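Lab notebook, design round three. We kept the backbone fixed and only want residue identities now. Task for the bench partner: fill in a sequence for the structure below.
Input structure tokens:
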């Protein structure tokens, strides 16, 4: 992230903290946002401040001071106060793990704070984690030993969480799941800067992902924890990607942990895949010249091209899957601020675009909302006309528009239309908004026209039935 983006994140976090004075009016799971805001400040500090050690301590002390403030003390007679205190300390202990390799072992104040945190815990595993951090800071434990220790810690919390029936109180579900997520992210963050061999990192990563799949795929999508699970699994997947060497497994993890839990996004990606492949297959069968032009962009044969288009369609909206769940789950029309968040999805994917395997698809991810002539659409700083995959971007854009325009079920920012209405819009926008060759071909291939009408009609209903039946 650049400094401007980091500054915006910092400003957003401080906006959240400005609501601290209304602390007692928030429910338990809502009050936790203040502790996580402090946690995120600590996580972001090193990215924009070279002298971040002093700021880490400052933010930590500010958070502790807030917890002991009168506004929080007024609620101290409630049983949940102890849980919040435990959560506060656990969050900061986890956040301090980010800096283990930064030479802070000689900073006695840093060590004293961790020692202080360790002594507050009732749970033996939490005390043990604090002890492990201190041990590492004193250079008595190597990278592999620490990761092995943390893996056992992760397993403890995973076994505790997988006993959930999801009929428990909200705060109990949140705390158990958070323990799993926080520890998983902590391991990934540490491994990213450790000297552990690649094979061992992948082994540990696969173990964490298999446990996460087992746990979070059990959470009913209709439950109140669904939004939290989406946010949590997104963070795990983004941190796990660098340790996975197989692109098929990467997509499987992304699909099963994130996309399949977001019904509308999942349906849309499957529909765009179906529509784009239908158009592509018909053009290939009829030897339409555009296929030859696509093949000339470095594909071995039609099968190779088709596979690339299929995966492009499946992951083109990966950024939307990472948008805040509270926005993704709205069934009403979105307001301007929420729609602005949706419009960020082509660029809200840095971690995927930096990944070696997914980087091949970055132009499709960034360009599928740009016009054919490159003069309109978003993001403004991406020139789709210069991409070697321009024709594939054009195809995905048209498939995206056909599905979005005819979706009368899942869209929360406009009303659906029938296929003929959408195709008329494609024709009107040919040469400027849409690739004229693809639009022309759809119009002259009656079999394709009928197939597309079937896909946006009966096939969509069948797909949605199968998707919701899994709930």
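Proposed sequence:
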């Amino acid at each position: 992230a650049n400094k401007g983006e980091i500054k915006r994140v910092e400003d957003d976090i401080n906006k959240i903290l400005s609501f601290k004075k209304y602390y007692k009016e928030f429910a338990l799971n809502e009050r936790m946002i203040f502790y996580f805001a402090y946690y995120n400040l600590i996580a972001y500090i090193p990215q924009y401040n070279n002298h971040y050690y002093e700021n880490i301590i400052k933010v930590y002390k500010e958070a502790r001071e807030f917890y002991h403030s009168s506004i929080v003390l007024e609620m101290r007679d409630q049983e949940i106060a102890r849980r919040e205190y435990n959560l506060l300390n656990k969050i900061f202990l986890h956040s301090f793990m980010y800096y283990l390799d930064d030479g802070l072992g000689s900073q006695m104040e840093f060590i004293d704070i961790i020692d202080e945190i360790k002594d507050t815990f009732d749970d033996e595993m939490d005390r043990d984690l604090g002890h492990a951090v201190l041990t590492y800071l004193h250079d008595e434990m190597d990278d592999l030993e620490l990761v092995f220790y943390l893996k056992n810690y992760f397993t403890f919390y995973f076994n505790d969480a997988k006993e959930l029936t999801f009929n428990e109180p909200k705060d109990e579900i949140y705390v158990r799941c958070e323990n799993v997520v926080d520890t998983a992210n902590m391991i990934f963050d540490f491994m990213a800067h450790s000297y552990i061999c690649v094979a061992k990192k992948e082994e540990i990563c696969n173990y964490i992902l298999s446990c996460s799949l087992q746990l979070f795929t059990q959470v009913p999508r209709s439950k109140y924890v669904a939004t939290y699970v989406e946010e949590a699994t997104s963070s795990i997947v983004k941190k796990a990607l660098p340790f996975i060497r197989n692109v098929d497994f990467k997509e499987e993890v992304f699909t099963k942990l994130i996309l399949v839990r977001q019904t509308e996004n999942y349906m849309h990606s499957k529909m765009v895949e179906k529509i784009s492949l239908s158009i592509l297959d018909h053009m290939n069968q009829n030897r339409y010249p555009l296929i030859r032009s696509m093949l000339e962009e470095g594909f071995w044969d039609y099968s190779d091209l088709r596979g690339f288009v299929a995966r492009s369609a499946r992951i083109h909206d990966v950024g939307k899957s990472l948008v805040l769940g509270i926005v993704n789950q709205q069934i009403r029309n979105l307001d301007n601020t929420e729609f602005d968040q949706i419009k960020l999805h082509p660029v809200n994917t840095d971690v995927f675009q930096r990944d070696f395997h997914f980087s091949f698809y970055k132009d499709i991810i960034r360009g599928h909302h740009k016009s054919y002539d490159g003069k309109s659409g978003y993001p403004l700083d991406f020139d789709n006309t210069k991409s070697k995959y321009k024709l594939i971007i054009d195809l995905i854009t048209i498939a995206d528009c056909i599905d979005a325009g005819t979706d009368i079920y899942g869209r929360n920012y406009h009303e659906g239309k029938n296929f003929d209405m959408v195709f008329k819009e494609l024709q009107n926008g040919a040469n400027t908004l849409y690739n004229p060759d693809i639009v022309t071909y759809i119009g002259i291939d009656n079999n394709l026209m009928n197939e597309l009408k079937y896909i946006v009609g009966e096939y969509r209903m069948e797909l949605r039935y199968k998707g919701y039946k899994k709930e």
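Keep this in mind before ordering anything: The radius of gyration is 25 Å.
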